[in-house]
Write a structure and sequence with these properties.
about 80 residues, mainly alpha, 4 helices
Length: about 80
Amino acid sequence: MKRGVNLKDYGEVKMMSLPLFILGPMFRMNFTRNPVMQRDTAHAVDSINEMVQNFREIYETGNSLGVNMPAMQYLTEIIM
């Protein structure tokens, strides 16, 4: 929203407001049981550094805009 994007136009954003104790298992189940997700993320095994860099840039942009990101903060403690 701080970048001028109407988040209501993107239904996927709604799930990011879920508590981490619900969101975490949903992601885990999606990655382990959904063949489409497995196919889309298969390349990630070879590009961990790129994924971490993308995460870092997203997180730093959010911080610079003053966006409250408790789930991202939690993940930062694990990833970085």
